[in-house]
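hi support,

uploading two proteins for the ticket. first:
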Amino acid sequence: MPKGERKTKHSKGSRRGERQERDVYEEDSLSVAGSVSTNSTISSDSDGDEFGDETELIDDTRSRIDEYITATEHKSAKTRVSGLASLCQVLSDNYVPDCMDAMQETLLSTVQRLLKRGGDGEKTASCRLAGVLILQLGFSEESKHYLEELSPYLMTCLLDHTKSQQLRAMCVRILALGYFIIGDLPDHVEVTTKFEQVLVSTSSQCGDVLAAAILESWPCLVSLMPPPMVHGNSEALISVFQQFLDSKDPAVRLGAGEAIATVYEMSLESDPAFLCSDHDEVTLKMKELATDHSHRRSKAERKEGRASFRPILLFLEEGTAPEDKVIVCKRQTLRMTSWTELLRYALMKDILGAGIKPHLMENLFLREVFGLGSPLGKDAEKGLYSKEEKKHRYAASRMYRQMERGNCRDKRSAVF
């Protein structure tokens, strides 16, 4: 068949398809307008049920908490640990101040009972539950009561060398979080001094989980102290942290680097021309870690280490502050531009896990800590358009693009 005839048949078919596309597009456009009006009607009708849905959610959460509390009283240790983990999960994923008002004494007695009599696994899970409860309560008399009741047990576990490293590390995080929320300056000085003493005693244990927890939690308490106080003790602190830069554990190395960066940051607030006596040696070590090519470590570990130490090196050499952002919801983004903010966020995330996002949206204390203002409400995550509106808008836009491409094909002409 001649080429020209084949082209003619193809062009007729394409024009017929274009006419069908135009008809479908017009029908789809009409359906878009109808669906938008329908969606607006449905949304207005559903506003009256919003309060009922929220009440049902609170009742469901309360019944789940009751069920998990009952599980913590089971004879099997495995069931008790599972109940504690489930309690942590439901309270991390949901900010429920109404439930806390009614059940805080029951939850406190549960944590105390398992901290006194449970094994290491139960104590570790109950410590994390205590941290989640304190974050739920925020800065209040109730959370202060929690901390006063629990801090003796937590400090005893921290100083007990017979306990597991995981339990002692969790005690460090909860103590740092509790005194960050509630404590005064004398409390901050006392707790950080205890942390430093434990850290020095574990300096010979490379890759220690406890050392990593102290190095990650210590800056949060120090960030609440006056900068001149930190500046006066900066030389001793940097010399302690510097020896952990040679650790075999990547978490310990990174924690030591971030702790040194925090000391520098606060000392520069007191003295803009601050440089420690070992500045060249510290900078050289940071540069070595930021360009690590040692084959003793895995490729993934080297890559992660280089990416983590580059901002620290840049801060020590040029004074460039770190920058990071977290999308809270579709209408708000958390931007962090200092080491103290980054390490505060890291501590909160260690305790809440993936539940950090709903707490950033609704938890009044966390929003105040990070300067996010008052909560935006339940509809903040929905964005500007509903799911159905987005679907029909995308369908109409796709049809319009198809029409435009068809018109362009019609207007093509051979150029000789």
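and the second one:
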Amino acid sequence: VVGKNFEEIVNNEEKDVLIEFYAPWCGHCKTLAPKYDELAEKLSGETGITIAKMDATANDVPSAYDVKGFPTIYYAPKGKKDSPRKYEGGREVKDFIKFLAKEATDGLSGYDKDGKKKKKSKKEEL
């Protein structure tokens, strides 16, 4: 995400969005990057959720997002884009999935509310 497409992607009223604001030089951000990328890959089939990130040193961060350190992660659910919530949970893939499974406006198709992967029915496998 960059400043020019922030409105289109993060404030898309059709999707819940988890967005990471990072700095390229930040050690914690570099540690989080592969986990955040894995999260995005695992949830790529979830049509109601977008996993996004934005270089906060190269783009203007909207005022609704209070970014004082890096990485800072916010959850912007659909229908509530004017009041995004700061994500304060764990920084492992399973922590993000558990949070999103519980908080997603329409739920996740591949995970139950506890963040456990749903088993495919025999019909889905055919």
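thanks. also noticed: The longest strand covers residues 16-22.
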